[in-house]
Design brief:
4 strands; Tetrahydropterin Synthase, Chain A; 43% helix
Length: 170
């Protein structure tokens, strides 16, 4: 019986620990090299070098005429004019009230007279809106585009955008 056990093949050993570590280092080096190469190719395509810390990206323009380095643009540099709060009821149902706070973004200088005309036009428009027209996300998007279009028309292009600050239904 002892002879049968002596002829059995010895269990096979796996690769040594040194070989496994060498393969791991080689694959890691290849991954790092491929990542570096891909990063260089992407940087070359954009045509810009990475900016140093604290510097604006290449081609960036300051937000306003008065913008200083490291300073966020203020409301004056963006020509934003807040409108008076509009509170009115809708066309249908008559007992649904709307409170709307808007701000206008002017292309050049802020004109309070034009802003007041836009405010009155928005009030008149809201009185014709039915609640089912402004339900859901698509209804809100339609309301925003209608307000933008009315403001641009009323101001003859001097208002570029209407910002909805508050919209409340009661």
């Amino acid at each position: 019986m002892a002879a049968a056990t002596d002829t059995a093949p010895a269990p096979r050993k796996g690769p040594s620990l040194i070989v496994q570590i060498a393969v791991l280092l080689a694959l890691s080096g290849a991954a790092v090299g491929a990542g570096w190469f891909a990063g260089q190719m992407m940087g070359a395509r954009s045509g810009s070098e990475p900016a140093a810390e604290g510097e604006p990206p290449a081609g960036a323009k300051p937000a306003g005429k008065d913008a200083k380095a490291g300073e966020a643009p203020g409301p004056q540099s963006l020509n934003i004019f807040p409108l008076a709060t509009i509170t009115t009821n809708l066309a249908d149902p008559r007992d649904l009230w709307v409170r709307l706070e808007l701000a206008l973004v002017f292309k050049d200088q802020v004109d309070a007279r034009i802003a007041e005309m836009v405010n009155q036009d928005v009030l008149a428009y809201l009185r014709t809106v039915k609640s089912r027209q402004i339900e859901g996300p698509s209804g809100l998007q339609h309301l925003r585009s209608d307000l933008d279009e009315r403001a641009q028309t009323r101001s003859q292009g001097k208002v570029t955008q209407v910002l909805i600050r508050t919209l409340l239904f009661e």
